[in-house]
Design a protein that fits this description.
This protein is of the alpha+beta class. Helices cover about 35% and strands about 25% of the residues. The protein folds into 2 domains: about 1-200 and about 315-395, Aminopeptidase; about 205-315, Alpha-Beta Plaits (2-Layer Sandwich), CATH 3.30.70. It has helices at about 1-5, 25-40, 85-100, 125-130, 135-140, 150-155, 170, 230-245, 280-300, 320-330, 345-350, 375-395; strands at about 10, 15, 45, 50-55, 65-70, 105-110, 175-180, 195-200, 205-210, 215, 250-260, 265, 270-275, 305-315, 315-320, 335-340, 355-360. The strands form 4 sheets. Strands 3, 4, 5, 6, 7, 8, 15, 16 and 17 form a 9-stranded mixed beta sheet that branches. Strand 5 (about 65-70), helix 3 (about 85-100) and strand 6 (about 105-110) form a beta-alpha-beta unit. It is globular, with a radius of gyration of 22 Å. The protein starts with a helix and ends in a 13-residue tail after the last helix. The structure holds (2S)-amino(hydroxy)ethanoic acid and manganese (II) ion (MN) (2 copies).
Length: about 400
Amino acid sequence: MWRELRPLGRYAPSGGYRRFAWTAADADCRAWFRAQASARGLAYETDRNGNQWAWLGDPAAGGAVVTGSHLDSVPDGGAFDGPLGVVSAFAALDELRARGVRPDRPLGVVNFGDEEGARFGLACVGSRLAAGRLTAAAAHELTDADGVTLPRAMERAGHDPGGIGPDPERLARIGAFVELHVEQGVALAGTDHAVGVASAIWPHGRWRFDFRGEANHAGTTRMEDRHDPMLTYAHTVLSARKKAAQAGARATFGKVAVEPNGVNAIPSLVRGWLDSRAADEETLHTLVAAVEQAARERARRDGTAVEVTRESMTPVVDFDHALRDRLAARLGGAPLLPTGAGHDAGILSGAVPAAMLYVRNPTGVSHAPAESADEDDCAAGVRALADVLADLGGDGSSVPRSEGAA
Ligand code: HGY
Ligand code: MN
Ligand code: MN
């Protein structure tokens, strides 16, 4: 599976992946998913929101146990964030078959569309739509950097966007969703655990800061006469860094757009996106308010203007305790880990019992080409996922507990 996935959407200069939703690279990944389903004789379907499903057994029977993740990436993302969960899902199904397990419940593998939000600015679009946490009307407003709307992009990729929206009947058929994911930190590195279980996801959001100033000549405008929004932006970035560190939280300006973007011109507009996350919502909101206040104070000094728009906000996720404890026990006492990363499992957790497994990441690097996971740990992840699916899917009694998962 990895051999086939490796070249899809790979950007050679960085060695990372550019698999943005509803692009040609995404279509290649989706074709790969469909081929994997077909090679295993699984029933394949795409739902109204463009998420892909592969089924062993009839999902209409209800109480389904579903696993999977996403195949899209951030700009120059690593190979594992997303794909490890999908590859492991198919591999775990193979493992269950090899063990001779016959689950009582339908088993599903899912590829959620547009998890990273790299193209349209909002993460987890496929799962948000399904769970009714993004309305069809709001989804119709999403546009990419070229002004292409999400529905138009779906249509161009061959998916009818006419039906996008909540999918409660589909979610009602799911008894449990378990997403396996590469760990995006070093909580497991250096321990003797290859696999951990998610406890919580930090609340997080994205805020767009528009800094407006006065365009002018870089050579002839005296420094004291300028209204330079780049200056206000730069100060805001430094302030966000300092305030996040003081709050034990995270604040990142990782994307910026400048107009007119000329070397010899003072910009008229600098648009920067703040990604901020914290262990609790009060800390997060206090931090973002403080960054905004710092931006406004600096704007007064620079004679610029700042406008802040909240583009998304995802509340804290506390994963279903009974399910997470069952997984941890099944895996011989796997550690429980909170994370600052968002996931489809977090979005679904309000609607269906959801849980996550993390596979050790030796460096903790993620959202970058250097993201990695050892082959042995990936194999332990597959065995752990198979154990969990067998446990949740019935017929667990015939399954020997794996040695490598703990
Ligand atoms: O950005 C995130 O937390 C996630 O990887 N979508
Ligand atoms: Mn990610
Ligand atoms: Mn991911």
